[in-house]
Amino acid sequence: MRKLVVFNQVSVDGYFTDKRGDMSWAKEGADDEFNRFTSQRAGGGGVLIFGRVTYDLMVSFWPTPEAAQALPTVAERMNRLPKVVFSRTMKAATWNNTTLVKDDMVEHIRRMKAEPGEGMAILGSGNVVAQLAGRAS
């Protein structure tokens, strides 16, 4: 059975965003040590899992020349790896190698976990994590 892990940045008091929904604090805290950590973690394979909000943030950065220059290893993996985005409102997922899933997220994750292959990582996507907590095993 595939493992499902979560990679999130949260504040010490447990928040993903500020009161306005902004998470620029996470980018502002990125220094050389954090960038090395991120690059090391990006070395694996597997499937990346997003909710719509995080997907929109990721697709606005990782396919850009700026991302390739700033974090080339991470950008290469983010663009190459298979991705699944869960959304009931999106019409299409345009980022390379992305599947849009509109149906039952918990059941879809259960099926994915039962398939052979490398693990799966939820990046950000606090709503996805909250919906799956204790339900997708």
Instruction: Note the total helix count.
Output: 7
Q: How much of the sequence is in beta strands?
A: 15-25%
> CATH homologous superfamily, by name?
Dihydrofolate Reductase, subunit A
Number of strand elements: 5
- Shape, per Cα inertia axes: globular
Rg over C-alpha atoms, rounded to the nearest angstrom: 15 Å
Task: State the main characteristics.
137 residues; Dihydrofolate Reductase, subunit A
What is the compact description of this entry?
The protein contains seven helices and five strands, in the order E-H-H-E-H-H-H-E-E-H-E-H. The chain has 137 residues and is an alpha/beta fold.
What does this structure look like?
By secondary structure, the chain is an alpha/beta fold. It has one domain: Dihydrofolate Reductase, subunit A. The chain contains seven helices and five strands. The protein has helices at 24-28, 32-41, 52-59, 65-70, 72-80, 105-114, 126-132, and strands at 4-7, 47-51, 83-86, 98-101, 120-123. The protein has a five-stranded parallel beta sheet with strand order 1-5-2-3-4. The longest helix is centred in the first third of the chain and has 10 residues, at 32-41. The model has no long low-confidence stretch (mean pLDDT 82).
